[in-house]
Input
Amino acid sequence: MCGIAGAIGAIDPSVVDAVRRMHDAQKLRGPDAEGFWTSPVNEQGQGVVLAHRRLSIIDLSPASAQPMGAGGPMKLGEPGAMMVFNGEIYNFAEVRQELEACGHQFRSQGDTEVVLRAMEQWGEEAAEHFQGMFAIAYWDAQSQSLRLLRDRQGIKPLYYAHTPDGKTLLLASEFRAILASGMIPRELDPRGLQSFLWNGFVTGPRTMVNRVNLLEAGSQSVVRLDSLEVHPLRYWSLPRWGQERSPQDLKQVLQDAVSSRLVADVPLGIFLSGGIDSSALAAMAMSSREEPVHTFSIGFEEVEFDESKYAQAVAEAIGSRHENLMLTGAHFQEQLPTALASLDQPTFDGINTYFVSRAVREAGLTVALSGAGGDELFGGYSSFRDLPRASAWHRRLRAVPLKLRRQVARTLTRMKSGPAGEVGPQTRWGKMEDVFVDGQSLATLFQISAGLYTRSFLAELAPGAEGSFGFSEGFPLENLEQGTTMLQAISLMELSQFVGQRLLRDTDAASMASSLEVRVPFLDHRVIECLAGMDDDTRFAPLGRKQLLRDLTLDQLDPALFERPKSGFVLPIDRWCREGLQKQVEERLLDQEACRSIGINPDAVARLWRAYHANAPGIYWSRVWSLFVLLDWCQRHGIQRAA
Output
């Protein structure tokens, strides 16, 4: 797990210095070692610069140092192939055997050289051999091209940007590193802002800043030195269907996905919340090792948020070596500036992962396994029940005149939520009008349900934002409805939007800010492909229970351990916003100039804050917190609308 940076195109001392600034900005991603390489430049002054920060996980020796060239580790100015790589290839031993059979010889014991040789041997087909998470930049001096490559689910990010003169392309593992280059104007992308206001995060390939883009998950692009054009091509997409598979097939794939992610030459543990997903992960890990695995949970002083007792009960049942790490409101407030600074792009949920990652790293671990993806894959969210119901209601009301539909929706909202405050409800019942009027497709219903605000309030907050549903431009959600059942489509949307666009990016940035590697076995592409070959009854029924995952992994545990209402891992931010953080949040939200500088209406923000503070119905903490994070992030990084 590392951080990579680089440039291709016109290379002069200013560009080399820019790459060094990007390199330095990513120090926390790789505190163990670093490398910097500059290619010879051609007659036009063109070449390549590659830089690498290393967090040593496997093969801690210098033999796996990067940038790594075809002739061995980095040598300044060496011609031929040169590569920087961020991530882990879990099946590198098997791939190495394939390459040795092709005649390749190895000087190191880790996965980096395996990736390098695979790129040499198989070119654009190399990714098909990898199981893992990765972002790769591979320079081929013979073809004068830089191949950019990202893993199937997008666990590891890769950002790129053309300089204003179009002569150089910059790349980095983090968005902030691109900004740190000093070569990209800090101009707000209006469509990035719209995406954030819909979702609480920015969907790729756009970002919050003009010119800066994110290479899409499961894609690669060959950037030629003579053109610098980036044309991503997908080598993998979320499967809509697959070869018929059995529960036993899935059990074997799951077990292999977990076992392969337990390999590390540094301390490793598992985040255990006590829920089904993390418990299944911990149970499979225990069955894969002779020694007890190290599990950990996060506890809170606020009893209604504290699930550490459930994690402790599961740990005792499976026999893991368990540790509970406490997070208090005072600690949260003290560390909040650092947590906010860890956000690579604005996101309303990323600090959750930051505080967990920091606590785990301080406990002495370098690698942590997470049960992320279980709800999306096995139907654990309420969306698997609510969206089909909403779709049925919309179909019934299609023949009703639009004006009457609006009246019915508003009446239902008043009946369910009561009298509105200064801002109407922005949660489930407040969105009835959007459902009845705009819910013509499952994808639109999904976005209405997941969005932070109603369309009417978005129009007040940032005129124009209500005209888009905030879908990913690179992989629109509508595409996922084709040729699938409704439940399969919802799973694909959750994986594409929530996991791919928010959770994985938040996890990468927040965990790497603490120099911690997080692995996500459930999101192994083989697990996703195996589930695509199962019918809905086997995979999802009964909805919300994740019975298939229980039967395959938790059959030796007392079912009573998991018979309680679902509760995701959430920090008590609502209480903290109303108590110790109230003044700080209020000052940020009521800064009218800060609001105007990024194109949001300060009056609408102020009304939202007053409604929240007055406990108006349907105004949850996430609605004000997302704007607080947005304003803080933009001011911290000097992001404003173009003049």
The longest strand covers residues 2-10. The domain at 2-234 is CATH 3.60.20.10 (Glutamine Phosphoribosylpyrophosphate, subunit 1, domain 1).
